[in-house]
Amino acid sequence: MTRPPLPPAIEPAELVWHDGVPESERFGDVYFSRDNGLEETRHVFLLHNHLPERFSQIPEGGSFVIAENGFGTGLNFLAAWQAWQSHAPVHTATLHFVSVERFPLTRQDLTRALALWPELKALADELLLHYPPLVRGVHRLVLAGGRVRLTLFFGDINDAWQSLDFHADAWFLDGFAPARNPDMWLENTIRQVRAHSKPGTTLATFTSVGRIRRALMDAGFRMEKTSGYGRKREMLKGILEAEVPVQLERPGATAILGAGIAGCTLARNLAERGHPVTLVDIHGPGAGASGNAQGALYVKLGVEFNDQTELALTSLTFAQRFYGNWRGQHWHPTGLLQLAHSPQEEDRQARFLQRNDYPQDIFWPVNQEQATALAGVPTQSGGLWFPRSGWLEPGNLCKALADHPLISTAFGVEVSRLLPCNGQWHISMAEGSPIVADRVILCSGHLSPDLIPVKGRFRLKAIRGQVTHLPTSAIMSPKAVICGNRYMNPSLGDFAVTGATFDLHDNNPLPATGSHEENIRELGSMLPSLFSSNTDKPSAKDLDGRVAFRCTTHDYQPVAGPVFDGEGACLDDLYLFTGLGSKGLSYAPLLAEYLADQLTGQPACLPANLVKRLETRRLYQTDMAVS
Predict the structure, then answer these.
(1) CA dihedral 42, 46, 49, 51 (to 10 degrees)
(2) In what helix (H) or strand (E) does residue 8 lie, and over which residues does it extend?
(3) CB 104 within 8 A of CB 13
(4) From the centroid of its chain, how far is CA 615?
(5) What's this model's pTM, rounded to 2 decimal places?
(6) Rounded to 10 degrees, what is the CA torsion of 221, 227, 231, 236?
(7) What stretch of H or E contains 279?
(8) Which catalytic reaction applies to this protein (predicted)?
(9) CA–CA separation, 335 and 520 (whole Å)
(10) Which among 276, 281, 416, 537 counts the fewest CB atoms within 10 Å?
(11) What sign for the dihedral angle of Cα 108, 111, 114, 115?
C-alpha cells in the first residue's frame, strides 16, 4: 500500500470503470445506481426531503442548507442545484450545500464521471471550473453568481462535523453501502448529524439497514421506511421532530466603515446575498492602502503546514477563484514567480519542498532556466511558480466591488464617534447628520481602534509602505509577477509598480526619494538584468510612487469577528475586520466570505481551527475597560 502524501495533499479516489460507471477500487462499490444515478438522486434525496416546495418558501435574503456525508462525483449536489434553479424564489436567496469527501476525485475523473449527464453539463462545467486543488481542509465554492455556495471538506468525516459550523435543513445521507464503508455510518457520526440539525430538519438515505434506522431514531429523528429506487425495494426518510422556533427577523441596516479591499469585498458579499449595506469612507473606494495601481496576489507559505499556513493557502486559492469574475478587467492571472533570491530563501524553499506535498495546480518548483522562461526576464535563481496567481488593479477593483444596487455609499464624510443607543449604533460625523445602523463593521485599518467605544490599547499598528512607478521605457518588463525581497509587476501602460518598503517607524505620508532609492536598489539586487545597464536606471528623484499604511497585528495575523470589551463581553452588533497587512488582496475575499456567513447566520466557510486564528480578543490588553 502506498504511503499517504505529506500535508497538505490528500489521497485521491482510485476508480475503476465498469460499463461506463465509476466504482471505488478502495470500497468496491459504485458511486451511483447503474440503472440511472440521476433519477435515483431525485427519488431518494430531492423527493423525500420535499425540496422543490421548501425551496420556493425561502424568504428574501434567506438561505437553505443541505448537508451530505459523501460528495463522490458531485451528482447529488448538481441535482440539488438544478432543482434550485427551477424552484428557488425569484428574490435573492442562497442555497448552501455542505459535503465531505475523504478520497476526492481528481479533476480528470470528475470530468469523465459528470459527462454521463448531458442535461447537467452547464452546471458541471461551472463546478469543474471552480473545483479546488486536492488538499485537506475546507474549500468554499461560490457558484451561480453567489446564489449557490458549496462547502467542501476534504478529509475525515468526523473531523469535518466537529470543525464545521452549520445547521442543516435537509440531509443527504449518501456514501457507499454501510457494509463496505462502516466508518461513515458509526453512531458517533450519526450523533454529529443530530448536532448539526435543527427542529424540522429532514433526512433521506438510500439504505434501509436496521441498525442505521435505530441509530437515527435514538438521535431523535422520526424514521420510516418507504419505497426505494430501482432494484432497492426500500429506503429511509426521517424528520427531527421538535418545536420549531420562531423565524428570526431579517437583520436590519448594516454599515461598513472603510472602503478598502476589506470593506468593499464584505459589502459586495452581503449585497449579493440580498442584504443592503451602507459603505462609509472619508475618501471613497480604494483610496487608502488598497489604492495602488497594481498589487500582487500571493502569500508566503510556511515551511511547516500549521494553522497559519492553512489559512494563507485557503485564502489564496479562494481569492484566485473569486477574482476570476474580473478577469480581463481588474484581474490579470499572469502567473507568479517566488524567487529563491538569497541563500537564506533558497534554503527555506528547499526545506519547504522536502516537508510538504502540494498539487501542481497550486505551484511547482522551477530551476533558473525555467524561471527565466516563465518570467520573461533573466533571473539569477529558480523558485516556486504559482500558475493561477497574478496581479490586480486594487483601486479600480474596489470601485467595481462597491457598484451594486444594494450598496449605498457615504463618501467624503469623516466618522468621529460610534455610540450605542437603544439597540442601534449611531455613527457621528465631523459634519452633518449621523448614520444609524443596526450593526457596524469596522474596516478602517489602523484607525479602527479610535472608533471602538472601549478604553485601552489595541495591538494594531500601521506600517508605512511606499511603491515606486518605473517607466516602461526604462525596464525590461516581465510577463509575470516576480516576488522576492521586492515584487515586480508586468507593465500597466507606461509604468510598472514595484515595492514596497516596510517602514516601521516612519509616519511620512508623502513619497520620499530615499524610499524610491531603496526600492530600486533592492529590485536591482533581485533582478540585475531588469535595467539594461546601471546608467539606464531611472533617477529616484524623477520617479512617481505612492505611500500607504498597512494595518497589521502584533502576531501579523488578520482579525475578523465580533468586538469584545476588556472583560470579554461581546459588544452587540459591532465587528472588526482588519490587520491584513501586506496580504490584503489575498486574505480579503475569504475573510469577507467568513464574516458574511456570520452576519447572515449561514454556514461558516472556515473550520474551527482557522476561526481561532482570527479572534479579535487577542488584540486587547488585559487592563482594558468599557468607556
Answers:
(1) -150
(2) none
(3) yes
(4) 17
(5) 0.95
(6) 0
(7) strand 277-281
(8) 5-aminomethyl-2-thiouridine(34) in tRNA + S-adenosyl-L-methionine = 5-methylaminomethyl-2-thiouridine(34) in tRNA + S-adenosyl-L-homocysteine + H(+)
(9) 23
(10) 416
(11) negative
